[in-house]
From TrEMBL:
Protein name in UniProt: Quinone oxidoreductase
GO MF annotations in UniProt: acyltransferase activity; quinone reductase (NADPH) activity
InterPro entries assigned to the protein according to its UniProt record, in alphabetical order: ADH-like_C, ADH-like_N, ER, GroES-like_sf, NAD(P)-bd_dom_sf, Zinc-ADH_QOR/CCCR
CDD domains: zeta_crystallin
Keywords of the record: Acyltransferase, NADP, Oxidoreductase, Transferase
Record's keyword annotation contains Acyltransferase: yes
Species assigned in the record: Buttiauxella agrestis ATCC 33320
Keyword Cell cycle: no
Amino acid sequence: MKAAFYEKCGTAHDVLLISELPDPIPGPGEVRVRIAFSGLNPTDIKSRTGFAGSKQKFPRIIPHQDGSGVIDMIGSGVTAERIGQKVWVYEAQSGRAFGTAAQYVVIPSQNAVVLPDNISFETGACLGIPAMTAHRCLFADGDLRGKWVLIQGGAGAVGTAAILLSKWAGARVITTVSRPEQEDVVRKLGADIIVNRHTEDVAERVKQATGGFGVDRIVDVDLVSNLNTDVTCLKKSGVISAYATEEPSAQLHIPFLKTMFEGFVFRFVFVYTMPEEARNEAIRDITACLRMESYTPEIALTLPLVDIAVGHEAMEQGKAIGKILISLE
């Protein structure tokens, strides 16, 4: 099979290689997926660059956790009906050396989720980490119907997923952006109120929109920077969910009395340690959202495998608005 891989951490153009590798064979409880599209996420960049001093766990790594394709081979213990199923893939490279940046990937059967017939492979490759992270942030604390949600960083991978899932669930969405060109994207996704965090007072806009009460939930890409704003924007007994940081040594200094008096809840989400029940709930709801054709992600770039380094660099530069996909078709 043709695959992209790296054997040491470093810059994309320096370490990402393209070559023929042996086709993988599924073991017990596993399936092999012929990949149509591989989805790139920030976590893939962090793994390749050794974020927070992390060591490379395998001598050769095929990157990328997410993707879509068709199951073409099964291992023992997997029902034959799985062969030929159109699927989306999540956490393909978690705890394993080989991810979805290849023509084939072998994964546990449960990590290949049936993709509804009406949904494209491109959309399927946009799910995985962003959709499951967003779902946990949004739904771990109950139903969203009729509630206000503030999404800090709505144009990012998890942010766009959070907008789509919030609107599907019947919530009203306020989202922040950092530059004008992001506004069109989040508006198309369904955001009700868009706030430019550089030119507007986020807390003031939130209070105006919610009649002074604040929002029920906040999904935040940078809680350390946004903490004071979030606390000001949150309704009594509201929930702040955080899922990312760009600074390994980041620390939070929480205003204890205000947080206690208002009954605020802080939730920290790391998709790889989500409880199994939460994973199953996310898959159930994401599938329902897909069947209603309510999950319409923004795709910024679709590149051939030979240009995978270009995709990695585009994500690192932060200029692409939307998902970056690698085509294996």
